[in-house]
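Notebook, student rotation project (T.W.).
Task set for the rotation: take a protein with a known small-molecule partner, predict the structure of the complex, and write up what can be learned from the model alone. Partner molecule chosen: zinc ion. Sequence and SMILES entered below by T.W., checked by me.
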Amino acid sequence: MAPVGSKRGVLERLGAGEVVIGDGGFVFALEKRGYVKAGPWTPEAAAEHPEAGETLPNNRRSQLTGESQKHISSSIVQGPFKMRQLHREFLRAGSNVMQTFTFYASDDKLENRGNKLTFTGQQINEAACDLAREVANEGDALVAGGVSQTPSYLSCKSEDEVKKIFKKQIDVFIQKNVDFLIAEYFEHVEEAEWAVQVLKATGKPVAATLCIGPEGDMHGVTPGECAVRLVKAGADIVGVNCHFDPMTCVKTVAMMKAGVEKAGLKAHYMTQPLAYHTPDCSCQGFIDLPEFPFALEPRILTRWEMQHYAREAYKAGIRYIGGCCGFEPYHIRAVAEELATERGILPEASEKHGMWGSGLEMHTKPWVRARARRDYWERLKPASGRPLCPSMSTPDGWGVTKGHAELMQQKEATTAEQLRPLFQKADCKH
Ligand SMILES: [Zn+2]
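Predicted structure of the complex:
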């Protein structure tokens, strides 16, 4: 393990042809654990549940109101702080990157549609950086500060206004000296370009991932062209994250790579897909599925399917391989196990996991011992256990994107009058 302060940077690792394993999506993982609200999906958990108050220094605690002080006190009594624990679980599973839990932590998103927060964007971003750094220093991991799409862009605000929002988050990342920066979860390449330009000005390495599939961005810009534009904007690493399943993401990144190479440019490639199967999604990805976000469980990939994903990503020339929504630490461990030979190391968490089910050799029941082999798990077609479960769904397909009236965002809570026509429109479609 490299001592703290002497770790090799992300571009150094990728430049040497090494595999960099990312982490999983904190928003979904922490929602299931009760620390994130589905809907706003904002990451205030970074600041609101510090374990024994360690991550929130006294000077900031004293700025808090009586109500939030009470909140913190009760969480001290509750015990373990899940975010730190989740970072540790991913580290133990083989992650080389601790991404700051700053998804949707821009000020305009934090206060969108009536979301009431006790903490400022700055406090949330600072606390997330401290947590990621603390755990990264326990192993061979780097810290990446992340920004994502903004409501301001959807509401057609100007380039200057949107860039100012990114700049506020990035000022915190620079002050906290993160190792590199990620612009992720952009569905319009134009907004991602703006983010990359702001990130690049810091001098840190920049990764940029769009949440697009083979059909391209929400305005129909192809993956190849998107990638070329991101590289020209200054991204060192390009790829996709979220919205689509692993194999669709590998296919999309392969299209990006072909575009970049055809343009005579150079980049490293990255994929951080969903852990859900999405063969039925169109360009809007899984948020268009009727099961999003509370009934996606039957679509989860098994660990063996993740090994297949890791191999195919590697074969496609992708070297930054991680995950997004739905990924749990055991999925990342599967990626690390599949690429153990290439990386020359097995993750710590494999101490409790025999490769390809070999731990089952110790099972008391003989028919389960018969499953202690690779070809059994590779050939298995897992059942859903739901007799009426369809294999595919019909995506909503409203087809609204930036510039459409229904996508204008607001600070105030959504009213009943605003919801009524949406319910009616949805009922007409089903
Ligand atoms: Zn995601």
